[in-house]
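--- STAGE predict ---
source: upstream dedup step, 1 unique chain passed
mode: sequence only
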Amino acid sequence: MIDDGIFDGDYIVVKETNYARNGEIVVALIDNENVTLKRFYQEKGQVRLQPANKNHSPIFPKKVIVQGKVRGVIRRFN
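--- STAGE serialize ---
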């Protein structure tokens, strides 16, 4: 999520919810196996989970459960 300013080692603040609007950053359970942090889009009857990193491709899961929406980022400065 580097293009959204979320970096390795950051902590995210998440509001638990199962609903998201297009473009929101969500914590999503994909196909009951993996959890990811991506931008959520509902398009043409399918969900697209869009990474905020040009080196990664979008995910079009068969099943997705939104577990929460990102509300903030906490970063430690050393």
